[in-house]
Amino acid sequence: QVRLVESGGGLVQAGGSLRLSCAASGIVSSLMSMAWYRQAPGKQRELVAGITSGGRENYTDSVKGRFTISRDNAKNTVYLQMNSLKPEDTAVYYCNAGSLRRYWGQGTQVTVSS
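RESULT FIELD:
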């Protein structure tokens, strides 16, 4: 079992920055891939960024050049640095991790005001 706890969400003005963190505990393996998803009101949950155990990153097109995902395997933590935030980035952001089985965090709200 893996427990994921997100932190770092909040309210920010457009153009601002936030850094999300997700700490994993339990049966954690550095071989797990980790990712951030988000879900805006009335929309489906979507993948924002992912990072493999080897550090390969991928991003959805709308955040490329603005968001950066990283991980610290020693701390079992994944981060999402979000810069140049836009109102359309407003959503609940969820951490996801695992290998064959995937786990979800409880989510953290990010609100970007115009």
